[in-house]
Amino acid sequence: MGRVLLYDTTLRDGTQAEDISFQVEDKVRIAKRLDELGIDYIEGGWPGSNPKDISFFQAIRHETLSHSKIAAFGSTRRAKVTPAEDNNIQMLIEAKPDTVTIFGKSWDFHVREALRISLEENLELINDSLIYLKEHVAEVIYDAEHFFDGYKANPEYALQSLKAAADAQVDCIVLCDTNGGTLPHEIPAIMKAVRKTVSTPLGIHAHNDSECAVANSLIAVDCGAVHVQGTMNGFGERCGNANLCSIIPSLSLKLKRDCLIDGKLASLRSASRYVYELANLTPNKHNAYVGNSAFAHKGGVHVSAIQRHPETYEHIRPELVGNRTRVLVSDLSGRSNILVKAEECGIELDSKDPVTLEILEDIKALENKGFQFEGAEASFELLMLKAMGKLKHYFTVNAFRVIDTLRESDKAPVSEATIKVKVGGKIEHTAADGNGPVNALDTAMRNALVSFYPQIAEVKLLDYKVRVLPSSQGTDSVIRVLVESGDRDSRWGTVGVSSNVIDASYQALADALTYKLYKDNL
Fold first, then answer.
1. Residues 423-448, buried b or exposed e (16+ Cβ, 10 A)?
2. pLDDT one digit per residue (tens) for the chain, 522 residues
3. CB atoms within 10 A of CB 258
4. Mind giving me the DSSP string for 196-245?
5. Cα(first)–Cα(last) distance of the chain, in Å?
6. How far apart are alpha carbons 392 and 221 in whole angstroms?
7. I want to staple 283 with a disulfide (CB 3.0 to 4.6 A). Which of 276, 307, 343, 348 is the partner?
8. How far, in Å, CA of 44 to CA of 419, rounded?
9. Alpha carbons 183 and 212: distance in angstroms, whole number
10. For residue 156, how many other CB atoms are within 10 A of its CB?
11. Where are the alpha helices (DSSP H) in 345-436?
């Protein structure tokens, strides 16, 4: 079995997703990261559709890629004009990509209702567009749009459309499930019929509207496809495209098919998160293979089992894709969870130590009040250290006050916080303004502590989440605050719970600063 070629369309199809937009600089950076990962084709956009995509093809020519080919996307010529007269075709050539990919209609319904031309005329524009491009571009790929729907509606015509492309000697014909409605069991018979009609190498392009895009892509490969199109993290319009972050490891580790350069699979998770970062989106923790929760274990029975044999609850070793096993702590935890988390934190606990049981009971009591330690592992580590009597007392907050003042009706309120902090025998009383009450309190607390602990200045507040707990009622609600903080070396999460959002925020912020001081061994 030969190598499966990977074709990434994050920079074109992926940008059609709601809430996703990349600047030209972002697209260039992503292309370079995909090249490092070992993706074979990077579809940069449709140069005939907007100035941004034209700018990308101009910019990427100044970059040196080690592996990937840059593909430009477009459509067959318009009816009533020749390819030489068609502006879209000409702009594809002028973009000077390594590869050109164009789509054409395979579904007779689309030919009649969207193009409003005869079925025969559609076959002509597919064929002569591709012939023309083959004369001007080194490699041409044909995307048979809506092929699976077209085949189910009129198999004879759908196959004729593929033959029109094959007769033009294209390098690959890609079967597209554009509406995402095809189910996995339908793929084999359709691909068998295609293979009897054309001998051109086949590819698959699946959308995820039925949650089957990855499954359809893998089955297509099993049926002979040698080219797979998709996007990083499954980005794409509607429900998204086939997720390459799931397809790549499934091909490599499950189907034993070569698709990446040796050694690159371990960088898949970091590449996934890089694309999320440039898209300004929070990574989906439940993504297969690369998500934070992909190898996270919460039930005590699970944790006990993976300590003996990881394969009891992990289908692959997470390190293969750059991920890691995580043990969560919650009211479902058993002693195994506590012991594993203690080991991760470099804390020695004995399963028979009464402290272990005390920590477990504390966790269950706190989670019953609304605390959650799954995203606040620093707070959990502090909890363990306190129970063991190993946490130094760094500071005491004797009092704080936060005031919001609306001074002008057409302007935002002004927030001010004052705080009194005791370190050793000294008391520091400071005040600070802020962009909102929590920011003011955070700034005042740091200002009070930095003269005692200068490294507090290194701590950055990276994320702040507030959640009203489901069992709460109206303005009497209990609120959970999760804070993510970081310095030059690491990031950590802390939690606070209260009926008062300022108090919950204070708890999380105080834990964040305490953890910094503990981490620095002060």
1. beeeebebebebeebbbbbbbbbbbb
2. 789 999 999 999 999 999 899 999 999 999 999 999 999 999 999 997 888 899 999 999 999 999 999 999 999 999 999 999 999 999 999 999 999 999 999 999 999 998 899 999 999 999 999 999 999 999 999 999 999 999 999 999 999 999 999 999 999 999 999 999 999 999 999 999 999 999 999 999 999 999 999 999 999 999 999 999 999 999 999 999 999 999 999 999 999 999 998 889 999 999 998 998 889 887 898 999 999 889 877 755 665 666 666 777 789 999 999 998 776 655 445 555 666 656 665 666 666 667 776 777 777 777 777 787 767 888 888 988 888 888 899 999 999 999 988 877 777 888 999 999 999 989 999 999 998 999 999 999 999 999 999 999 999 988 888 888 765 455 557 888 989 998 888 889 899 999 899 999 999 999 999 999 998 885
3. 12
4. HH--S-EEEEEB-TTS-HHHHHHHHHHTT--EEEEBGGG--STT-B-BHH
5. 59
6. 58
7. 276
8. 53
9. 6
10. 9
11. 354-369, 377-387
Sign of CA dihedral 122, 124, 125, 127: positive
Q: Cα dihedral angle (423, 428, 431, 436), rounded to 10 degrees?
A: 0
Count other Cβ atoms within 10 Å, centred on residue 407: 8
Pairwise CA distance, residues 276 & 220, whole Å: 27
Question: What amino acid occupies position 396?
Answer: T
> What value does the CA radius of gyration of the chain take, rounded to a whole number of Å?
29
Contact 94, 47 (CB under 8 A): yes
Per the listing, tokens 């789509």 go with 103
Task: State which amino acid sits at residue 214.
Answer: V
Question: Would you say 442 and 450 are in contact if contact means Cβ atoms under 8 Å apart?
Answer: no
Instruction: Give the span between the Cα atoms of 57 and 95, in whole angstroms.
Output: 6
How far is residue 315 from each of residues 187, 251, 295, measured CA to CA in Å? 26, 14, 9
In one-letter notation, the amino acid at residue 232 is M
CA distances (Å), origin 338, targets 153, 298, 375, 512: 58, 11, 15, 21
Token digits of residue 356: 């272990």
* β-pair partners for 100: 72, 140
Q: Give the residue ranges of DSSP H helices in 137-177.
A: 147-153, 155-166
The whole-model pTM stands at 0.72
* SS3 of residue 259 by DSSP: coil
> How far is residue 483's CA from residue 496's CA, in Å, rounded to a whole number?
9
Beta bridge partners of 174: 143, 203
For the chain, which domains are there?
A: 5-261 (3.20.20.70), 396-519 (3.30.160.270)
Scanning the structure block, which residue is given the tokens 């504390």?
362
Q: How far is CA 466 from the centre of its chain?
A: 22
Question: Token pair of 244, please?
Answer: 């390459």
Tokens 């490294």, residue? 455
Is-contact 67 38, C-beta < 8 A? yes
399 vs 120, 444, 506, CA distance in Å? 82, 12, 11
Nearest to 235 by CA among 18, 20, 14, 7: 14
Contact assessment for residue 422 and residue 490, using Cβ atoms and an 8 Å cutoff:
no
